[in-house]
Amino acid sequence: MSKATRLYQFLHGMTQKTTYPSVINFDITSKCNLYCEHCYWRKNYDPAGEFTDSEWEEIFKDFYSKGAHSAFLTGGEPSLRLKVIESAYQIFDTITIVSNGTIRIPEEIQTRIFISIDGPKEIHEKIRGRNVFDSIMTNIKNDKRVVLTPTLSTTNYHYIEDLVQIARESNVDGITFSTYAANDKETDKLLLRGEELDWTVNKLEEIWRKNKDIVFLSPKIIKLFKSKKFYKNCYLRNQTKEISYDAQLKQKEPCVLGEGVDCSTCGCIVPIVAYAMSRIDVRAWLLFDKLFSERYY
Ligand SMILES: C[S@@+](CC[C@H](N)C(=O)[O-])C[C@H]1O[C@@H](n2cnc3c(N)ncnc32)[C@H](O)[C@@H]1O
Ligand code: SF4
Ligand code: SF4
Questions:
Q1: Which of 32, 62, 105, 257 has the most CB within a 10 Å radius?
Q2: This prediction's pTM
Q3: 34: Cβ below 6 Å to ligand 2?
């Protein structure tokens, strides 16, 4: 697919409120092998039964036949369901995986994989609750399918430079950042606000200037982490159509972060890039092209 067609489809998908969504987010499992301090999954965890591999295959075929041609696979931890990932890869035109990196995604699955690394070993393991850093590094080494996707909170915002170094040393395709979104912005201790958020934004700008080859950000995008101007226009929040589903195929609202999230605290890179693209930020368009590389889409 050409660059122009991909960009057109993305923007078209964002703005059409009546047609069936072309990209769907599936939590393919409600299980996880980690227990991260910041995770919305912990707040909304539903231990109800899981679909079998063949049930997922039928679900994917059904969505595809209705017009959903691309799937984001997340969870819980999607790599716990490798067979489900394989069938999504066979059925949809394109898939994107968001994983904690503890289980390597087989080489045959040639797609973009976002791996959540939240800091150097000690910090990552403090946040993620298990001693998994070294094995994740082994799993992702030299894997160009991978873009690192840290979530910055009050626990790890001082480790932005270390995270860029980890991206370099592991020789993955790049790194981008999101900031933590809270349910209660008055009391949440992980939420970056005030001077901490200012410091974060300045540091992101500094590391972007020094590492443009692997840091997938732009100055306008970085400013949006602070101004939050994008959230009222967030295409996920404003769509009436179904986009995000949990592991029991219940619709998640307003988005994958689930019920209760305060959109005014959001720092999710996906709606931020979408907003910047809709404001004709050329760098955001180039960034989109890096995040969702032509190699896979
Ligand atoms: C819920 S996880 C599911 C996929 C996989 N288990 C992982 O850790 O990547 C998806 C992403 O959401 C991030 N995340 C979890 N809770 C969040 C929150 N409250 N605000 C922003 N991002 C969050 C995680 O750090 C991870 O990068
Ligand atoms: S690994 Fe992913 S789903 Fe599991 S607790 Fe951590 S962020 Fe949440
Ligand atoms: S939490 Fe963020 S991504 Fe989700 S609907 Fe709100 S603004 Fe959009």
A1: 105
A2: 0.95
A3: yes
Question: Residues with Cβ within 6 A of ligand 3?
Answer: 181, 231, 234, 236-237, 254-255, 257, 261, 263, 266, 268, 271
Residue 74's CATH number: 3.20.20.70
Q: 2 falls in which pLDDT band (50, 70, 90)?
A: low
- The total number of structural domains in the chain stands at 1
* 297 assigned to some structural domain: no
> How many A from CA of 271 to the centre of ligand 1?
15
Q: What domain range is 183 assigned to?
A: 3-291
Peptide bond into 254 cis (omega under 30): yes
Compute φ and ψ for 3, nearest 5 degrees: -55, -45
Per-residue model confidence as pLDDT tens digits over 63-76: 999 999 999 999 99
Torsion from C-alpha of 117, 187, 40, 134, nearest 10 degrees: 20
Residue 182 lies inside a defined structural domain of this protein: yes
pLDDT at 44: 76
251 has pLDDT over 80: yes
Q: What is the DSSP string of 119-156?
A: SSHHHHHHHHSSS-HHHHHHHHTT-TTEEE--EE-TTT
Ligand index nearest the alpha carbon of residue 239? 3
What is the whole-number distance in angstroms between the Cα of residue 98 and the centre of ligand 2? 10
In a domain, 213, yes or no: yes
